[in-house]
TrEMBL record:
Pfam families: tRNA-synt_His. GO terms for molecular function: glycosyltransferase activity; histidine-tRNA ligase activity. It comes from Candidatus Marinarcus aquaticus. PANTHER family: ATP PHOSPHORIBOSYLTRANSFERASE REGULATORY SUBUNIT, HISTIDYL-TRNA SYNTHETASE. This is ATP phosphoribosyltransferase regulatory subunit. GO terms for cellular component: cytoplasm.
C-alpha cells in the first residue's frame, strides 16, 4: 500500500533550512560562473537524444510522443545544451559559455540536482579544471580531484586485446592477474611522479596519451590531485581528458572535454545533493 504522503524512492525533498542551504549553494556557484562570463540556460525536462549521452540505456526513463518518437526524461544536460545553443538559439546568440541549475532523472525514479556548465567551442581542459578548483575554493572544501584520459584504457585494451568491460566495470584484480609490469605500474599510478615512472615502461602506442595526461596534471593548481590513467567514466561523450571530484564514496563533480556539433567543447556537472552532504559535514 502507498500512502498519500509517500514519495517515490530516489526522489528529492528539500524544505525549510535544507532548502535554504540548497539555494545558498546554487547562488554561490552561480556568482562564480557569472563572474567568469557564463550565462544561464534552463533546458526542457524532456529530450529526444538522451541515448547519445548515457552509456547504459536502461537508466533512461522513456515514453513515446504523439508521433511515436521516443522521448526520455533528461538524464544528462551536456549534449542537449550544446544542441539548443548552436541549433535552436544560434541565430539569436553567439555566446559560448553557459550554465544550468536543474535536476536529472534516471530509472526507475531517481532524481538528482545538478549545477553544470558548458564552454562551447573551447578545448583547453586546464581552463575548466581551474574553474572547478575556483568553485571548490569558494565553497571552502578541498576534496580529491581525480584526473583521467579516456583514450588510455581504450589503447590498453587494444594493445592487450582485452574486453573494454574490464575497465568499464573497474575490474582491477583481473588486470593484475595478467602479470604485466607496465600495466601494473599504470594501475598503481596516483601522482605525477608515479605517472612519469609508468611512462618509461609503457608501450609506445600508449605513451602519447600518458604524456598528455601528465602535462595536464602538472599544470593544475590544486593541492589534492590523484591521477587515475585507467579509470573509465560512464558518459559516452567524454573523449579525451576528463575528471571527477570525489569525497569518500561521494562523487561531487564530473567534467571533461568532448565533441558535439563539430566542435571541441568542455563542461562539468556539480552534484548538488552530494555537495550539500559534504558541506553539512
Amino acid at each position: 500500500m502507498i500512502f498519500e504522503h509517500e514519495i517515490p524512492k530516489g526522489s528529492r525533498l528539500y524544505f525549510g533550512k535544507t532548502a535554504k542551504k540548497k539555494r545558498a549553494l546554487e547562488n554561490k556557484v552561480s556568482d562564480v560562473l557569472y563572474k567568469q562570463g557564463f550565462e544561464e540556460v534552463i533546458t526542457p525536462n524532456f529530450s529526444y537524444s538522451q541515448h547519445q549521452s548515457i552509456e547504459n540505456d536502461r537508466k533512461l526513463i522513456t515514453f513515446s510522443d504523439e508521433q511515436n518518437e521516443q522521448v526520455a526524461l533528461r538524464a544528462d544536460s551536456t549534449l542537449d545544451v550544446v544542441r539548443i545553443i548552436t541549433k535552436r538559439l544560434g541565430r539569436t546568440t553567439s555566446h559560448k559559455k553557459w550554465f544550468y541549475i536543474q535536476p536529472v532523472f534516471s530509472y526507475p525514479s531517481t532524481e538528482d540536482y545538478q549545477i553544470g556548465c558548458e564552454w562551447i567551442d573551447h578545448d583547453d581542459i586546464s581552463d575548466i579544471i581551474a574553474l572547478t578548483a575556483t568553485i571548490l575554493k569558494e565553497l571552502k572544501i578541498a576534496p580529491i580531484l581525480q584526473i583521467s584520459n579516456i583514450n588510455i584504457p581504450k589503447l590498453v585494451a587494444q594493445e592487450l586485446d582485452l574486453d573494454m568491460e574490464l575497465f568499464k566495470n573497474g575490474e582491477i584484480a583481473k588486470l593484475f592477474e595478467l602479470n604485466i609490469p607496465w600495466l601494473e605500474a599504470l594501475i598503481k599510478v596516483k601522482s605525477s611522479t608515479d605517472l612519469e615512472e609508468a611512462i618509461k615502461l609503457a608501450p609506445s602506442s600508449i605513451k602519447e596519451e600518458l604524456v598528455k595526461l601528465l602535462n595536464v596534471a602538472l599544470g593544475i593548481k590544486y593541492s589534492n590531485i590523484v591521477i587515475a590513467p585507467l579509470y573509465y567514466g560512464c558518459m559516452k561523450y567524454y573523449d579525451d581528458i576528463y575528471y571527477r571530484v570525489i569525497d569518500k564514496n561521494l562523487t561531487l563533480c564530473n567534467g571533461g572535454s568532448y565533441k558535439s556539433e563539430g566542435m571541441n567543447s568542455l563542461g562539468f556537472a556539480l552534484y548538488s545533493d552530494n555537495l550539500l552532504k559534504v558541506l553539512e559535514d
